[in-house]
Design goal:
This protein is mainly beta. The protein has 3 domains: 95 residues, Macroglobulin (MG2) domain (Immunoglobulin-like), CATH 2.60.40; 111 residues, Sandwich (Immunoglobulin-like); 145 residues, Immunoglobulins (Immunoglobulin-like), CATH 2.60.40. 1% of the residues lie in helices and 47% in strands. It is built from 1 helix and 28 strands. The chain has a 5-stranded mixed β-sheet with strand order 2-8-7-4-5, with no helix packed on it. A 5-stranded mixed β-sheet has the order 10-16-15-12-13, with no helix packed on it. InterPro entries: A2M/Complement_sys, MG2, MG3.
Length: 398
């Protein structure tokens, strides 16, 4: 059998008093206000409602610079006080001391030092393009120091509508805290709050102003971004000649871009291309045919014009490209247009030749030396020509 004896001395205190002293931040600089609280609790952790005999503040050298006597506490056992530092205070650890009874003194410390602020930058980025039929709009606010570390602090974000049809609209204000790990925060606002779905508001842009306040120092920096609001999902652009050689093949490109002019790499977007023509003696345009294409990996559509009847009497060819999966959308509450169908028109005029003779050489990419290539050459000759024309050509290297 194993027997063990131990003794422990326990001190008993009648009606012990718990005093907690805290400041609003651990670090201060010259001229700032030191805000602090004193909380007094009894042995049952309930507010201790008696007066505090004395509260005083000591410099790092132990000199008492300010004191309060017979301080009354509120019903919660709490008292809040403020002390203002001089413009040239002693640097180091300062003390706040609280004497509740003749024998009990509690203290806490705070640091005063010359603070050299580290520069940080605030960025505001819209996560996506904004359209009048968007359900939600998001922005990302980030703050980073010049050396790459994230900033700890709070952000005040003001959202202002620009170009509203009904005049100035009230700003939307949000107070958010930056993420501890990323130094960023994502802010999402609904379409109804921005007035996107209201034809009477219909803003043309949204300005977001973000002010980030660094935790501890109180230093703030501001950044803003102006995000346009689009009434069209994307834009289409023709990359082809404005002239057509009658009787010869005509090909072209349609490229899809964002409304801000950047590439929009989406594969499989359906693009319809319709061809209208007008011959000599006709007043209006006649629909020749429509073709459906899909965009490739580079957001391009390559098309070719069909064979056109009586090409030598053509006056004008009009090529219309439109996104058939994005038709024009109206506001639910009115007949006003909310979103336009992406569409573009390209007019092509025929070249003129008295002999009705045309020549076209299809160029190729850069060719390597000693390589072989087939270069198509297309031409037309009058129907009355009796012989095949003789061609002379010259190949020049660069």
């Amino acid at each position: 059998q194993l027997t063990s004896n131990a003794q422990l001395e326990v001190r008993l205190q009648r009606n012990p008093l718990l005093v907690l002293v805290s400041t609003d931040k651990p670090l201060y600089k010259a001229g700032q206000h030191v805000n602090f609280r004193v909380l007094s609790l009894n042995h049952k952790l309930k507010p201790h409602g008696k007066q505090i005999l004395r509260i005083w503040i000591e410099t790092p050298s132990g000199v008492q610079v300010q004191q309060w006597r017979e301080v009354e506490v509120n019903q919660l056992g709490l008292v809040q006080l403020q002390f203002t530092l001089d413009k040239e205070p002693l640097l180091g650890q300062w003390k706040i001391k609280v004497q509740h009874t003749s024998s009990k003194i509690t203290e806490t410390r705070f640091v005063v030092k010359e603070y050299i602020p580290v520069k940080f930058e605030v960025t505001v980025d819209a996560s996506t393009e904004i359209f009048l039929d968007s359900e939600n709009v998001s922005w990302r606010i980030c703050a980073r120091y010049s050396y790459g570390e994230v900033v700890q602090g709070d952000a005040h974000v003001e959202i202002k509508l620009q170009g509203s049809r009904s005049g100035d609209q009230p700003s939307i204000n949000n107070a958010v805290k930056l993420n501890t790990y990323s130094g960023c925060v994502d802010l999402t606002v609904g379409a109804a709050e921005l007035g996107l779905s209201d034809p009477l508001v219909q803003p043309s842009a949204v300005q977001v102003v973000a002010t980030v306040t660094e935790q501890g120092s109180g230093i703030s920096h501001t950044s803003s971004v102006l995000s346009p609001i689009h009434i069209q999902r994307f834009s289409l652009h023709f990359l082809c000649s404005r002239y057509y050689k009658p009787g010869l093949p005509y090909t072209g490109n349609v490229v899809m871009k964002t409304m801000e002019g950047r590439p929009r790499p989406i594969v499989g977007e359906k693009i319809q291309i319709c061809v209208r023509v007008r011959h000599l003696g006709q007043l209006g345009m006649r629909l020749l045919q429509c073709y459906n294409y899909t965009t490739d990996f580079s957001s391009h559509v390559v098309f070719a014009l069909p064979e056109i009847e009586d090409p030598f009497n053509l006056q004008l060819i009009s090529i219309i490209a439109s996104a058939i999966d994005h038709p024009t959308k109206l506001y639910p509450s009115s007949n006003e247009v909310m979103m336009l169908q992406p569409s573009v028109t390209h007019n092509v005029k025929p070249w003129f030749s008295p002999s009705q003779s045309f020549l076209d050489v299809w160029t190729r990419d850069t060719l390597a030396c000693s390589s072989t290539a087939v270069i198509p050459i297309y031409y037309t000759v009058p129907s009355t020509a009796s012989e095949t024309p003789l061609f002379f050509y010259l190949v020049i290297s660069k």
